[in-house]
Amino acid sequence: MSDQNRLGVFKTYKLYVGGKFPRSESGRVYEVTDSKGQWLANAPQSSRKDARDAVVAARKAFGGWSGATAYNRGQVLYRVAEMLEGRKEQFVREVAASEGLSKSKAAAVVDAAIDRWVWYAGWTDKIGQISGGANPVAGPFFNLSTPEPTGVVAVLAPRKSSLLGLVSVIAPVIATGNTAVVVASADAPLPALSLGEVLATSDVPGGVVNILSGVTAEIAAPLAAHQDVNAIDLTGADAALAKELEIAAADNLKRVLRPRPAGADGASDSTDWSAAPGTHRLTAFLETKTVWHPTGALGASGSSY
Amino acid sequence: MASAFEYAPAPESRSVVDIAPSYGLFIDGEFTEAADGKVFKTVSPSSEEVLSEVARAGAADVDRAVKAARKAFEKWSALPGSERAKYLFRIARIIQERSRELAVLETLDNGKPIKETRDADLPLVAAHFFYYAGWADKLDHAGYGANPRPLGVAGQVIPWNFPLLMLAWKIAPALATGNTVVLKPAETTPLSALFFADICRQAGLPKGVVNILTGYGDAGEALVTHPDVDKVAFTGSTAVGKAIARSVAGTDKKVTLELGGKGANIVFDDAPIDQAVEGIVTGIFFNQGQVCCAGSRLLVQESVQDEVLDALKRRLSTLRLGDPLDKNTDIGAINSAEQLARITALVETGEAEGAERWSAPCELPSSGYWFAPTLFTNVTQAHTVARDEIFGPVLSVLSFRTPDEAVAKANNSQYGLSAGIWTEKGSRILAVANKLRAGVVWANTFNKFDPTSPFGGYKESGFGREGGRHGLEAYLDV
Amino acid sequence: MPTTAPAFSDATASDSALRRFLFGLPGVDAVGLEARAASLGTRSIKTTAKAYAIDLAISMIDLTTLEGADTPGKVRALAAKAVNPDPTDRTTPRTAAVCVYPDMAATAAAALAGSGVKVASVATAFPAGRAALDVKLADVRDAVAAGADEIDMVIDRGAFLSGRFLKVYEEIVAVKAECGAARLKVIFETGELSTYDNIRRASWIGMLAGADFIKTSTGKVATNATPANTLLMLEAVRDFRAQTGTQIGVKPAGGIRTTKDAVKFLVLVNETAGEDWLDPHWFRFGASSLLNDLLMQRQKLSTGRYSGPDYVTVD
């Protein structure tokens, strides 16, 4: 039977929250088009309540995920790369449509996104050694600084780079043990919603990554103001929205990662996501905890331990 | 406490410090009056004696100081790190030489005991400059990439509880990394920063690298919102910290905030009790409890609660409150009438809400601002005194039954700056420390500080770290 | 019979009960303990307070000679010094006791008769304590018969370090029984016990066994009295009185040579056990050279000029 004769099966794109695939509680969807304006799919248009539910899911997942061993998190992230590799063709298609790329360029983007998961999979059990360490205090104390995840991080995904940019902002957040509520690119949400399906089959515990699609400002505003969100990555916000959200985020002193650098047109999405990431996004959502304990000395004064 | 062994007065000599009747702002290497000629008085909180009259900076002065710092930045940041290091080493050494003078000055202006300024503040101030001096020519090795660049002009606003130490925490890393600074000390404790200006002069520090603006909150606000400031560093209240976080929204300013706390000091039933009692005392009565990382919530396991409370009350009865310049004074004056009123109001709230108050039996001097060491028992998580930062010598005592409950209660706060753990069981220390959402955890000790050790909070206690290698990041473009 | 407080009578019922009791005592954090002792060491004791402290310290001295070369002449000279420490100033208090070996106890008793200065004698095969129990008890009997008012015994550190706590306890009980009216000071030799946890446990064994004093050391090993180990023992007697009502004395011995040191120890007493212990009946210094330094400081306070070693007697 040839393709021409068969009617294709469309996919109903859904949110990814708490390891499940709900529709928006609002019942709303919006049209997603390709770069030429052709209809691709209807995506859920998330509401503030969807954002709230996603935060609850992310908070619930935080204890287990942050408490997992770094080795385990590394294996899970690597598993994401494996799963993505297996579904490469689907993502090449979605990225090509979303970003208006040729098939070969889209394939390169997907390859890079897979490799990015691999890069961050290797970081989980090294970042602590890079950013922590023993401090030689001037006294009889053992003093150790270790990085710990900040908590629940709201992530506004890049507006243009629908997969590589997306992966580049999610992976560092969860590599270090945070959990994420991700606001997908409003214009190009489909790779993000499909990524949810990959995460769901990759041993990533439900709630560690939650993905919402819709109007960025509508979802981001309640997240920025939410008292149980610890940090916000404003990468996908334009300058005006970023400022507004940063002000809201000050209410509970969220850690804020500003969009940077701002492009000439005021758009903040001029980042070259294919460049080597560095550690900046890993350390942005880490807290340093420093623990002191007395040591004493062996027999220096006869009775000293 | 009347005793057969009455310690005779042992006052440190005031004559080692010479306080001028008036001081100007320190801008571009010169002392200068405020543009509008405004001044304010600084008093000694233990006697209400006027110590000096200092210039009150306004927006025009802030602008002048930022311009001076900007002008100085080009050359200062271009200096080889090894040369910047030598300036900082000089400053560290001059502080050591003048430490007695500065300790007496700080005690006069702040009200804290000379024992603390002499044995804690000043040694830490010198050590902090010495530590960061060594970083200035080693930044390539700090883990922030090759040749990390400074940010530019740092606007720094510091509190009154450790005036000179907070200055050191701000200025030492800023200068080591090649930034220039405009610093505003608190209005109740301006003097040690002005003496520091003189130390910069003695050290030959280039003009404009350090500028000191004495003044009030309006000057602080003008400084942190000044468009030509690249870096904002603030230590103080969470309310002001939030306002600063809002004010820098949409700018490229890098911000670090060290804010409030409500530290939990957790005592398990297998704790070294005598040392735990000392740690509780140090935790909440060091510097009259005017410490952001104070262990202001005592969480004690119910099975040893009575024993610990009896020992604590007995110990508090031996604290010596009085003349801060007396070398035997343990508890000095509260820094200001305003702070005393805050503490008093919160303690009244505690009583009104049904917590049981106990204050150490000690006589309060007739002039100055004083508050007796106080603890509240029958406190629950719902009480104001268990949630709000009092910033005074007031301890709230809560109990718990299991380690899980202790951790849950400890973390049940908007703050996350410090915590203490007392137990002889090593694995419990590590397990509890791991679960506590606090930037500094002291196990079987409390209120220890060191320039090599990063300090800073989780949650609403602020962000960024000061001290150690971590402290460099706040002043580098990374 | 020893008067073990009823609250703790079970603790000494068996070796295992005693072990459980001792290991149930709160641990000691060494750094915290030493920091507290050092902090109290920064107290500035001046003028009238210093004068009070010097006189109190003199009155608390167990003026000690424990040499193989001791002779009756040496002991008599020391006794004279104890009764009248500063011939130039008769207001100087006498010392608490003269401390000698058992064979010198009679000489000391004769020399001190009627002076109010006590005769203390070390016993129990001091300083090592390595003799059979009956030999140790005979040693105690001898000293008491010779007129000793106070017996300074050493515990069996070998038994303690090998975990035979009940043996240590029972030996103290037996010695106490031999003491009769004499007060018993129990020496732990803290330098050999090595850890603060051990010193706390030894303190409780001593107190439970009926010691009148607990004492740090013999003066014959490398580490003797320190502010930290004395602070720890002061905490022990404080806690014991709080729980049993029985007050027990503390005697740091060895290594305390200067007025400054002695005043630091008195600050420890004042701010740990409290003023009830600021009395020769409850606190002693085991010392010899300390006395002359106290006397020189005393002269400085009364005359305003610094004294020198030629202005105090050498005995």
Radius of gyration of chain C, whole Å: 19 Å
The Cα radius of gyration of chain B reads 22 Å
Strands ordered across the widest β-sheet of chain C: 7-6-5-4-3-2-1-8
- Put simply, the count of helices of chain B is 15
Question: Mean of the pLDDT scores of chain B?
Answer: 97
Strand content of chain C: 5-15%
What would you call the shape of chain C? globular
Keywords (chain A): Oxidoreductase
GO molecular function (chain A): oxidoreductase activity
Domain Aldehyde dehydrogenase (chain A): 25-256
Protein name (chain A): Aldehyde dehydrogenase
Describe the secondary structure blueprint for this structure.
The complex is a heterotrimer of chains A (305), B (478) and C (315).
Chain A: E1 29-33, E2 39-44, H1 48-67, H2 70-86, H3 88-99, H4 103-123, H5 127-131, E3 133-134, E4 141-149, E5 152-156, H6 164-175, E6 179-183, H7 190-200, E7 209-212, H8 216-225, E8 231-233, H9 239-249, E9 255-257, H10 280-283, E10 286-294
Parallel strand pairs in A: 5-6, 5-8, 6-7, 8-9
Antiparallel strand pairs in A: 1-2, 3-4, 4-10
Chain B: E1 22-23, E2 25-27, E3 30-32, E4 39-43, E5 50-55, H1 59-78, H2 81-97, H3 99-110, H4 114-135, E6 153-157, H5 163-176, E7 180-184, H6 191-203, E8 210-212, H7 217-225, E9 231-235, H8 238-247, E10 254-258, E11 264-267, H9 273-285, E12 297-301, H10 305-316, H11 337-352, E13 356-359, E14 374-377, H12 384-387, E15 394-400, H13 403-411, E16 415-416, E17 418-422, H14 426-435, E18 440-443, E19 458-459, E20 462-463, H15 470-473
Parallel strand pairs in B: 1-5, 6-7, 6-9, 7-8, 9-10, 11-12, 11-17, 12-15, 14-15, 17-18
Antiparallel strand pairs in B: 2-3, 4-5, 10-20, 13-14, 16-19
Helix pairs in contact in B: 1-7, 2-4, 2-6, 3-4, 4-5, 9-10
Chain C: H1 15-23, H2 30-40, H3 47-59, E1 61-64, H4 72-83, E2 97-100, H5 105-112, E3 118-122, H6 133-145, E4 150-154, H7 157-161, H8 165-179, E5 183-187, H9 190-193, H10 196-208, E6 213-215, H11 227-244, E7 249-251, H12 259-273, E8 285-287, H13 290-303
Parallel strand pairs in C: 1-2, 1-8, 2-3, 3-4, 4-5, 5-6, 6-7
How would you describe the overall organization of this protein?
The complex is a heterotrimer of chains A (305), B (478) and C (315). By secondary structure, chain A is of the alpha/beta class. Chain A has one domain: 3-Layer(aba) Sandwich (Aldehyde Dehydrogenase, Chain A, domain 1), CATH 3.40.605. Chain A contains 10 helices and 10 strands. In chain A, a hairpin with a 6-residue loop joins strand 3 and strand 4. Chain A is globular. Chain B has a 7-stranded mixed β-sheet, sandwiched between helices. A 6-stranded mixed β-sheet of chain B has the order 8-7-6-9-10-20, sandwiched between helices. Helices cover 39% and strands 17% of the residues of chain B. Chain B folds into 2 domains: 259 residues, 3-Layer(aba) Sandwich (Aldehyde Dehydrogenase, Chain A, domain 1); 187 residues, 3-Layer(aba) Sandwich (Aldehyde Dehydrogenase, Chain A, domain 2), CATH 3.40.309.10. Chain B has 15 helices and 20 strands. The longest helix of chain B is centred in the N-terminal third of the chain and has 22 residues. Chain C is α/β, with parallel strands linked by helices. Chain C is built from 13 helices and 8 strands. Chain C has an 8-stranded parallel β-sheet with strand order 7-6-5-4-3-2-1-8. In chain C, helix 4 links the parallel strand 1 and strand 2. The mean pLDDT of chain C is 96. Chains A and B meet through strand 4, helix 9 and strand 10 of A and helix 8, strand 18, strand 19 and strand 20 of B. Strand 10 of chain A pairs parallel with strand 18 of chain B. Chain A: Keywords: Oxidoreductase. Chain A: InterPro entries: Ald_DH/histidinol_DH, Ald_DH_N, Aldehyde_DH_dom. Chain A: Pfam families: Aldedh.
